[in-house]
Structure formats: structure tokens, C-alpha cells
């Protein structure tokens, strides 16, 4: 344990694993090399794939039509000291929830297929250059990282840039014959991945939907109390003045209270947090989220789910709430459902 951080992934898989092993969703996984970045892509299999489904003319037509359905691609980003591999169960849990909702959906209600993308953060998993740079402040010299404030912000910002690069190029790797269209780009992430989610949402106008899970949009509100608790001065070399100024002007918190035309205007955002989270306290995000303006009804959507009794972990309840939000706001056509 380093300054309140568990080195285990911030994911509560205990309640999911049994169900997903016994009743796995019909999930397909492919791994792509996108400009040197190893990218995992998860999706639900369509009827008729791998030889399944109806063999008659009608069955073939239905499968062909479904394969033409536009796609919503969601980046699912992992936490600090974790890696993309740890997110596979989370991706399965998301897709299992979508699969269950499909069973009760009206015909034509689901208009987009959800595909989930995972990859390693910078300096994590297969991309580790220096493991020490992922550490925090510590009394143990072997685990101490005096550049923690800079390293963590650089990593989460760099990962947000990776998301934007993948939006540029991933469609041509997935659909080289342009057989599918990516109609919606979504970003979600857990812990450090949640921080990156906020940054990507702010910086890339193509990301219209975001679900930060136990992440924080206000870096200084998060990192300064941590530094003070570790007796780290908020001054150079730990906090260079130019670094602090950069954060103040580039962080999502810099967009606090922006109105029409702001970075978050017109976006659909579900903020997910644990009420008992001591690592990324809800208090560090609360003011920003309260003042966040995404527009009036019909322009943007802002929802907040702070789960009671939950600490710094992505719970099964959080996944259910996230998929509910995606189903209602992105994947389905409400008018079709209402008319059914």
C-alpha cells in the first residue's frame, strides 16, 4: 500500500467472475497493432457469425443488415499500476449488461453496436519504461518517486492524446473495406483512467460521451492534499511553478463554469464515484461537477452516480449504471422503444 493506493487494480471483480465464467457473453476479441500500440477490441458476436444462426435466406439477410449497423466505440482506460489485461473482465461485464438488455429490447430499438477498446497507459503494462515513475511519494527510498505529481499528470494527459490518435486511425484498422461506420466515440476509465477520461472529453470535440469512474477532473484539488499528507511542499522541485500554471490552464477544471461553446457543452456525461473513496475523494470533484454546464435538455446530459458504501473501486453497480446510461443515451432510439 502506497499512500492509500492498493497496488491491485481498482476493480471489484469478485462479484462478476463467477457469473461471467459460467454465463459468458457471446463476446469476440481481436488485438490490433495500431502504429505500434497494442489495442484490444471487444464486441458482441452477431447472429450468423462463426457459423451460428439461421442458414435460410431470411437469416442471412438479417445478419447482413446487423453487420451494417453503425458502431459506438468506447475506450475503457485502466488505473495506475494496472494494465489493459485487467480490463478484460470489465469489458465483459459491460457487454454482458448490453447482451441482457438486448433480450428485452423492442425490434429496432438498438441502433448502435457497442465495441470496447482497451490499451496500456503510457509506462504501464507492455509500455513500461521505468516502473519507479509509476510510484508515489513514500518513506521507502526504493519506492519513492519525487516526480510523482508530474509523472501522473503526464501519463494521464498522454493517454488522452493516445485516445485522440486512435480516433484518427482505428477505423481503418477495424474496417479496411469501410464495411462499418463508427457513429459515436465514447471514453470511460477507472481511477487514473477516469482522470484521462476527463482530459480526453475536454480536449477532443469528437468525444461526445464520457463516463469517468472514480476519476477526478481537478488535478490540483486531488494531488495537493496528497502532497501535504506526505509532507511534500507545493513548490519546486516537486511542483515547478510552470507545471502548476500549465495544470491551471489545461486541466478540465480550467473549463469550470463555461457556458455555450465550452469544452463540455452538448456532451453526455455520467460521473461515477464511490461515497467512501479515500484515494480519489468525491470532495475533490464535487465542486467542478456541480458547476459543469453541458447545456439545457436536448443539448447535453449530465448525470451523477455516487454509490454509497463503496470506496476506491469499480463495483458491479457502477457497471450496471454505466450501461444503463449508454443504453438510454447512445445505443438505442427512445422513440422506437416508446412506440413498441
UniProtKB/TrEMBL annotation:
InterPro entries: AB_hydrolase_fold (IPR029058). Residues 45-66 are annotated as: Disordered. Residues 54-65 have a biased composition (Basic and acidic residues). It comes from the Eukaryota. PANTHER family: ALPHA/BETA-HYDROLASES SUPERFAMILY PROTEIN (PTHR47381), ALPHA_BETA-HYDROLASES SUPERFAMILY PROTEIN (PTHR47381:SF3). This is Uncharacterized protein.
Amino acid at each position: 500500500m502506497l499512500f492509500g493506493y492498493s497496488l491491485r487494480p481498482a476493480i471489484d471483480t469478485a462479484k462478476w467472475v463467477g457469473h461471467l465464467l459460467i454465463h459468458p457473453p457471446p463476446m469476440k476479441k481481436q488485438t490490433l497493432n495500431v502504429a505500434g500500440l497494442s489495442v484490444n477490441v471487444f464486441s458482441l458476436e452477431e447472429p450468423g457469425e462463426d457459423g451460428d444462426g439461421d442458414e435460410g435466406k431470411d437469416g442471412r439477410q438479417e445478419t447482413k443488415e446487423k453487420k451494417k449497423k453503425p458502431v459506438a466505440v468506447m475506450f475503457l482506460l485502466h488505473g495506475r499500476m494496472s494494465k489493459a489485461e485487467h480490463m478484460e473482465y470489465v469489458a465483459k461485464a459491460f457487454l454482458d449488461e448490453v447482451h441482457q438488455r438486448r433480450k428485452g429490447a423492442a425490434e429496432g430499438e438498438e441502433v448502435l453496436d457497442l465495441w470496447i477498446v482497451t490499451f496500456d497507459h503510457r509506462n504501464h503494462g507492455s509500455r513500461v519504461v521505468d516502473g519507479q515513475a509509476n510510484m508515489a511519494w513514500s518513506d521507502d527510498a526504493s519506492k519513492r518517486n519525487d516526480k510523482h505529481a508530474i509523472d501522473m499528470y503526464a501519463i494521464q494527459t498522454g493517454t488522452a492524446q493516445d485516445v485522440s490518435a486512435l480516433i484518427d486511425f482505428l477505423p481503418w484498422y477495424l474496417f479496411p473495406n469501410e464495411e462499418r461506420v463508427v457513429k459515436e466515440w465514447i471514453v470511460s476509465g477507472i481511477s487514473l483512467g477516469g482522470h484521462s477520461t476527463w482530459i480526453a472529453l475536454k480536449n477532443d470535440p469528437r468525444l461526445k460521451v464520457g463516463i469517468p469512474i472514480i476519476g477526478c477532473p481537478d488535478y490540483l484539488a486531488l494531488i495537493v492534499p496528497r502532497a501535504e499528507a506526505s509532507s511534500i511542499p507545493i513548490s519546486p522541485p516537486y511542483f515547478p511553478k510552470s507545471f502548476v500554471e500549465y495544470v491551471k490552464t489545461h486541466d478540465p477544471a480550467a473549463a469550470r463554469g463555461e457556458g455555450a461553446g465550452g469544452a463540455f457543452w452538448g456532451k453526455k456525461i455520467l460521473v461515477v464515484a464511490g461515497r467512501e473513496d479515500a484515494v480519489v475523494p468525491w470532495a475533490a470533484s464535487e465542486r467542478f461537477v456541480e458547476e459543469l454546464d453541458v447545456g439545457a435538455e436536448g443539448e447535453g446530459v449530465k448525470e451523477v452516480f455516487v454509490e454509497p458504501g463503496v470506496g476506491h473501486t469499480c463495483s458491479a453497480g457502477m457497471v450496471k449504471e454505466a450501461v444503463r446510461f449508454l443504453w438510454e443515451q447512445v445505443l438505442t432510439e427512445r422513440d422506437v422503444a416508446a412506440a413498441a
